[in-house]
Amino acid sequence: MGILLGIIADDFTGATDIASILVREGMRTVMSIGVPAATFDVHDAD
Fold first, then answer.
1. Are 19 and 13 in contact (CB under 8 A)?
2. d(Cα 30, Cα 45) in Å, to the nearest integer?
3. Is pTM, for the whole model, over 0.90?
4. For residue 44, is it within any domain?
5. pLDDT digit string (tens) for 1-46?
6. What angle do CA 3, 33, 5 make, to 5 degrees?
7. Does any domain span residue 15?
8. Residues 6+ apart with CB under 8 A from 33
9. Per the domain annotation, does 46 fall within a domain?
10. What are the distances in angstroms from CA 33 to CA 15, 20, 28, 44?
11. Tell me, what's the pLDDT at 46?
């Protein structure tokens, strides 16, 4: 299993900024606005 990292941003711009940095460094990212459903599986995201 790889790294599972959670980040809380205070706005959409900050969230996309950190996501773009992580993607540039080779990590996959998923962005959610609000609390994900209890059935959400991060491994199903693309």
1. no
2. 7
3. no
4. no
5. 678 888 999 999 999 999 999 999 999 888 888 888 888 887 766 5
6. 10
7. yes
8. 12
9. no
10. 10, 16, 17, 17
11. 59
Residues 32, 38: Cα–Cα separation, whole Å:
13
- The boundaries of the domain holding residue 18 are 1-29
43/46 Cα distance (integer angstroms):
8
CA–CA separation, 25 and 10 (whole Å): 22
Q: What would the two tokens of residue 25 be?
A: 């460094």
Residue 32 and residue 45 in contact, taking contact as beta carbons nearer than 8 Å: no
Neighbour count for residue 1 (Cβ, 10 Å): 4
How many folded domains does the chain comprise? 1
12 in a structural domain: yes
Q: Is 13 helix (H, G, I), strand (E, B) or coil?
A: helix
